Amino acid sequence: MTLALVLLSGACVRGFLYAVPSLHSTLSFRPELVTPTSSFHRIQEGVFLYVSTGSPYSGDVFHQPPLVFALFYPVLQYVPASLQYFIRCALFISVDLLLAVGFARLCANTLKLEEGRVYKVKNQVIWLSQIPVSPLFRPETLSKTVAFIALLNPYSVASSVAMSTETYVWVAKYSDLTPNVGIFWYLFIEVFDRFVPYFLFVLHLHPAIYVIPIYLRLA
């Protein structure tokens, strides 16, 4: 298994699924795959707001990063409608392939840094220092396996077909309470407005408090 074959397989699977527009239409509204901060339909609404008002952020509808807007605005505004879907599919496939290559390179570089190190717990060599039973997880093939998992796991494929994008800063405020698979929207529906800043602080801080203890335990 080579990295090129993995990338080709991932592109072909996505291309095949994109060839069924009804599948994309169904998945693009699934709350398991898209949220208010990652829905491609919000980008389309942002383009409309930009054309109408001069700013895609003039309402509480569009929450995508400016770079995402800049990437898709020319496609949605200037490309003929008959070609828009094809170009959007090509963009999403290209981004997924770049991410898979990045994961593979990161894995390969990490293996180089870890080469020769032996990890022990209570004088027992742990599995990180031993040759895995499965050939998929051996050092020479691990980077390809990582790329394969990144490209061809069902959630990754479904998210790509749904054209789910990502955002970064806006999510800290979480002002759009559209239902999704997370718990934030439900919690903040129930919370009084005066307590919202407090719970935002606590919930965003909560994952961070585990970093140092886990590092001290595993380092």
From TrEMBL:
Primary location class? endoplasmic reticulum
List the membrane topology term(s): Multi-pass membrane protein
TM annotation in the entry: 195-216
What is the protein's given name? EXPERA domain-containing protein
Q: Where is the signal peptide?
A: 1-19
Output the Gene Ontology cellular-component terms: GPI-anchor transamidase complex
Give the UniProt keywords, A-Z: Endoplasmic reticulum, GPI-anchor biosynthesis, Membrane, Signal, Transmembrane, Transmembrane helix
Kindly state a single biological-process term from the GO annotations of this entry: GPI anchor biosynthetic process
